[in-house]
Amino acid sequence: MKNSPRILIVDDEEALRELIVARLNRKGWQADGVGTAGEALARLKTTVYSVAIFDLKLPDGDGLKLLHQARERQPDLEVVILTGHGTIATAIEAMKNGAYDYLTKPVNLAELEVVLEKAADRRALIIHNEGLRLASRGTATPTIVGRSEAIRRMLDVVHRVAPTDVPVLILGESGTGKELVARTIHRESRRQDGPFIAVNAAAIPENLMESELFGHVRGAFTGATTARAGLVEAAEGGTLFLDEIGEMDLALQAKLLRFLETGEYRRVGDNRQRVADVRMIAATNRNLLQEVESGRFRQDLYYRLNVVQVLVPPIRERREDIPLLIEHFLRLKGAALDALTPRAMAALMGYSFPGNVRELFNLLERGLLLSGNRPVEPEDIFVEQVPRASDSPLLSLAEVEKMHIRRVLEATGWNRTEAARVLGISVRNLYRKLEQYGWQSRRLLP
Fold first, then answer.
1. Distance between CA 278 and CA 234 in Å, rounded?
2. In sequence order, what are the residues at sequence separation of 6 or more whose Cβ sits closer than 8 angstroms to the Cβ of residue 26?
3. Taking the complete model, does pTM exceed 0.70, yes or no?
4. Other C-beta atoms lying within 10 Å of the C-beta of residue 322
């Protein structure tokens, strides 16, 4: 049971130590036993434990000192003290210094199991609450809006895969709502009471991504003044959503693959192995098979992630959902459902939306802002020009994308960060587009 709590027993009475280890292992725990404080500290350097049992009297020291040294190495470690009747006062002192509980010898093994279970639950709760704290930065309960056939097909896959624990790969263009789909899968899973932790691989510098995911120890790199848990640890018992996974570098892909296969990972700068029970959902707007063929994405990681694939349709494949999306947005903003004039609605229905749902919501927000207290007109939504189907040439999707990117760049004064936000893509992805079009600077615009 790879995710069962790991226990360290430190007692120089070999018979008692081996009895406790054997009993705990039979009950499904992962128990290790050592006879000295030195051996214990050596184990704590290489293995992460949920709970430790320390005898107060050890050949090379005492349990109280070992308690301090152990908590320095593993701050989340819960410690149970074993003591004789003559040292109960010292055991109480140990509890004041952070021990979870103490038991007297001869120890009752059934009582010891109960205490260990409570200590392990307490540690898991602390880690779980940290995950919820990070998850609380997200949005309210997500809602997928639409009745189109494309959305119904997608939701059918979502409802079937959600109750399982298999990894999911969500594919879709920028702005289609891939994180919304991931949150829906989490909400319908057995992990719904656990944290949902989302991280965008394109938004974090490559040299910090490993630390963000797996955490780091103090001194692991310049600026690491304290130890820090990663998002994997914060997602314990819940779901980790990795957006823009196609942006992740190959070295980190290998470590992510190991975590997916074993549940094991190491913080940056640490040689101790840790275990986390996390469901992985990944998303990308790239063609990962092409990325595999070009050597930019690991084939083994692709197949490990791609157990179930969810395709999120773009707006052009679900145009009948546009009025529903508009109504949903207006409700969220507390605006009247007839806030748009028929002309504005017709203009939106005729627009291509290369930025998909995200762009639609941005345009609506701009329209509400510029219209003031009067109904929203097309000119409020499309500041530069109002698209008209009658006089617009038929263009390929690539040509529409190119024109729209140029329009957004000009509207933002070539502020690439702001342009990427409006377009609903990463800054890195925008720079790749600019290089593709030969637009590294505005002077190179045709």
1. 9
2. none
3. no
4. 19
